[in-house]
């Protein structure tokens, strides 16, 4: 599956679920991973698309990557 296709499959509901979970700290994520800002992709969407695959943490308090519960396809 191409990266563009995978990125397009990350639904707004998935992004909202991640944000609502409290497990994702957008400010920390952007500060910790400067390439996120450079990508031009919304940080939560970037995390679901690429951050999880790279093993990135969603917040300083997280011990490991997490997925939005509504995102089985990511």
The count of DSSP E runs of length 2 or more, i.e. the number of strands, is 0
Average pLDDT taken over every residue? 84
Please give the radius of gyration in angstroms.
11 Å
Total number of helices: 5
Structural class call reads: mainly alpha
Q: Which range best describes the helical content: under 10%, 10-25%, 25-40%, 40-55%, 55-70% or over 70%?
A: 40-55%
Measured between the Cα atoms of the first and last residue, the distance is 11 Å
Please mark out the parts with pLDDT under 50 across 5 or more consecutive residues, or reply none.
70-74
Shape: globular
Total domain units: 1
State the major sheet. Answer: none
H/E topology pattern: HHHHH
- Please report which band the strand proportion falls in: under 5%, 5-15%, 15-25%, 25-35%, 35-45% or over 45%: under 5%
Q: How does the SSE layout of this entry go?
A:
Elements: H1 3-9, H2 12-21, H3 26-32, H4 35-39, H5 43-51
Question: Which terms would index this structure?
Answer:
mainly alpha
Short description:
It is built from five helices and no strands. It has helices at residues 3-9, 12-21, 26-32, 35-39, 43-51.
Task: Write a structural description.
It is a single chain. The chain has one domain. It has 74 residues and is mainly α. The longest helix is centred in the N-terminal third of the chain and has 10 residues. The protein is 51% helix and 0% strand. It contains five helices and no strands. The radius of gyration is 11 Å and the shape is globular.
